[in-house]
Design a protein that fits this description.
Helices cover 23% and strands 38% of the residues. The protein has 189 residues and is α+β, with helices and mostly antiparallel strands. The strands form 2 sheets. It has a 5-stranded mixed barrel with strand order 2-3-4-8-7. The longest helix has 24 residues, at 2-25. The relative contact order is 0.19. Residues 1-24 form the signal peptide. This is SAF domain-containing protein. Keywords: RNA-binding, Signal.
Length: 189
């Protein structure tokens, strides 16, 4: 009887420990990375240094992390498939149409903490990942290394939620002004 009781108590303790670990492992903490981001003074400067101005919704995303032989991170971001629903300006050689899917490099990535429970999301300059359920206006330029990849101009200055009427709490006045000017200029609904 004493043996059965010990087995039951041990099993319950083990189950609670596993459950607690699994819960903790499902959590993601955020670490901000400071960087010298490119900032634009005017909307015309932002537009002149970009190749595409489009709207649409993000689909699936995948981490892209490249490490060197010593295990140090050389490049890291998230590649998001983005379904285009509107093209407002394009200097691209290839014509882009409604319904096309392009790759966008978002300046964040997630790392599994290994045996330590949880994951860590590294975000450059407070960047917030696009949400799949929302529609966005993006100002993009081509990536210098990967020709089929697009980069958001100015990290946060080239990404605007079209589903939110209020200014994003992480957005500054200039970015909100750029969004308003773009929506008005291109009559974006």
């Amino acid at each position: 009887m004493k043996f059965k009781k010990t087995i039951i108590i041990t099993s319950v303790a083990l189950a609670l420990s596993i459950g607690g670990y699994m819960y903790a492992d499902s959590k993601t903490s955020v670490a901000e990375i400071d960087a010298m981001k490119v900032s634009y003074n005017t909307l015309s400067e932002l537009e002149s240094r970009s190749e595409l101005i489009i709207s649409g919704k993000p689909a699936e995303s995948v981490n892209h992390v490249v490490r060197n032989a010593d295990g140090l991170t050389e490049e890291a971001y998230t590649i998001t498939s983005f379904k285009v629903d509107g093209v407002y300006a394009s200097k691209a050689k290839k014509q882009l149409n409604q319904g096309d899917i392009i790759k966008v490099a978002e300046p964040f990535y997630i790392v599994d903490n290994g045996i330590k429970p949880g994951k860590t999301q590294f975000a450059i300059e407070g960047y917030e990942p696009m949400e799949k359920s929302k529609r966005y206006l993006l100002v993009l330029k081509p990536d210098l290394t990967y020709p089929d990849l697009n980069v958001i101009a100015g990290v946060t200055e080239g990404k605007y939620s079209l589903d939110e009427t209020e200014q994003n709490i992480h957005s500054d006045e200039k970015t909100a002004k750029f969004k308003d000017e773009l929506v008005k200029k291109y009559q974006i609904k």
